[in-house]
Amino acid sequence: MNFLDEVPAVRRIDTSRADLFAVDVVGHVTSADAENLFGLLEAAYALHDRIDVLVRLVDHDGVDWAEVSDETIEQGTADAVAHIGRCAAIGEPNWISGAQGMLPASVPIEFRHFAAEDEAAAWEWLAATPISPPVMPAGS
After folding, report:
1. What is the pLDDT along the chain (140 residues), one digit of tens a residue?
2. Do residues 69 and 32 make contact, with C-beta atoms less than 8 angstroms apart?
3. SUPFAM superfamilies annotated for this entry (predicted)?
4. Reading across the β-sheet that carries 51-58, which strands appear in turn?
5. DSSP secondary-structure letter at 3?
6. Other Cβ atoms closer than 10 A to 96
7. What is the C-alpha to C-alpha distance for residues 44 and 85, in angstroms, rounded to an integer?
8. Does domain 10-126 have CATH number 3.30.750.24?
9. Is 27 helix (H, G, I), strand (E, B) or coil?
């Protein structure tokens, strides 16, 4: 294992909005990364009853969903339904239809996908700007 193997795949992005939860998802997401993401979201829900979410995928290489406990996924889904208003996904793959398929049809979360080159439009849609610099894809 080298030092890069220990870098978390989920990294918070500081933003101009306190009620916007924004993250970079870089490379492969392990079950520990997914559990960490749910924990970070729980903390955001504790601070703000309603939040918007921005997920920026960078060199995404899949998620180990099979290794995340069913209880964590069920609680994460229930919390998302209760607390998230809008969710912007930036980059590929476009996972929105999969996320919507996990949620009840009547969920009021507004999802929107943006290509990586349209990232500015995602931030505009959420009326926010990033404070921390973006993660650059490998080879850039």
Report:
1. 444 555 678 999 999 999 999 999 999 999 999 999 999 999 999 999 999 999 999 999 888 989 998 999 899 999 999 999 999 999 999 989 888 887 877 888 999 999 999 999 999 999 999 996 655 555 55
2. no
3. SpoIIaa-like (SSF52091)
4. 10-12, 20-26, 51-58, 84-90, 110-114
5. G
6. 15
7. 13
8. yes
9. coil
